[in-house]
Amino acid sequence: MVQRLEISQAEARVLQAKYWPNPTLTVDEVNLWRTYDIESQPALIGNWGKSSQVSVQVEQVIKTAGKRRKSIELQKIEVDGEKYEWQEVLRELKKLLRHTMTELAYNQELQRLYGSQISSITKLTASYKNQLTSGNISKAEYIRLKAQEVEFRKKQVSLQQEAEEQQTELKALLMMPADRYVVITDPLKQPPGNFSELDLQQWITESAENRPDILLARNQEKHALKNLELQNALKTPDLTFSVGYDRGGNIMKDFIGVGVSLDLPVFDRNKGNIQDARIEVDKTGYETRKNVVKSQNEISSVYQNYLRTKKISDELDDEYESTLDSLLISHEKNFRLRNISMLEYMDFLETFIDNKTIILETKKELNEYFENLQYAVGKDL
């Protein structure tokens, strides 16, 4: 919203640039007392003015060499620059918002994963405590199971703490009050779209025309060129036209005359500012080319990272994940029936948690690379 208001400020500067300079009124040579040996004059106002002298002059500056028009055009370019700045801010905020939502969704799914395991292992721990009391198992087995429960609870607390930080950032982005809590209801899933090298080439071409940072760099180059025009125009002196009235200060009692004045460009021909403006044109040109090349490399790099992650994601299909869930249920049942040892159960539980985490991390990374790709291209894909 602040960046949006800066556009309005730039538009106000365009409005200001359109105004002509104010005329200057000068009242001079007024004698406040009567002097001797003066010529008789008729009264000017009532009985006043028979022995008074006064000079009145109005001056108006006329800008030459198109300075006013060039100043207006320069301010209009600045308005465009503020609009591109606004688009760039929105692009950055959109990326930050989506990344934060992806991180929160990943965190919430991990919490559900650990919450489910805590619920299951808590029941096992309670059962083993009764078995320990009855003398059916060793204390070491119970401690091993309890330690795993504590480890899961510690991990869940750590995830909750991370979620609080994500909540803080997300609520700040959405301008939500502190008493609200955001829950991402959609599960993490693979983003839509299958892309090819043809898409990559099209994105590289379009990014040079669409990305706000490149448009901003080109606008700065345009601004530098227009400023160079203005600095060249400033070496031409402005004209000052005047109309004056003089009473009692000349051989004519009531004298009206016109005049014109201008600075003589003998010493200052604005050479330093013109040279500075030329260098700025070169600088902005280099910056534009740098941003274009940078965008091309960013798009290519992010696209390759997206493809690599997508390949892994495609291998981790829904059938693999459902197989893991079925095997966990089977191992837990066999462990309750004491068909498998605690070591076997714990080994598989660790494998299950690791693989589930890998699946979630892959989905999260794929969504993040997809958003990075949209950010690099400069549009939603």
Automatic annotation (TrEMBL):
<dbReference type="Pfam" id="PF02321">
    <property type="entry name" value="OEP"/>
</dbReference>
<protein>
    <submittedName>
        <fullName>Channel protein TolC</fullName>
    </submittedName>
</protein>
<dbReference type="InterPro" id="IPR003423">
    <property type="entry name" value="OMP_efflux"/>
</dbReference>
<comment type="similarity">
    <text>Belongs to the outer membrane factor (OMF) (TC 1.B.17) family.</text>
</comment>
<dbReference type="InterPro" id="IPR010131">
    <property type="entry name" value="MdtP/NodT-like"/>
</dbReference>
<dbReference type="GO" id="GO:0015562">
    <property type="term" value="F:efflux transmembrane transporter activity"/>
</dbReference>
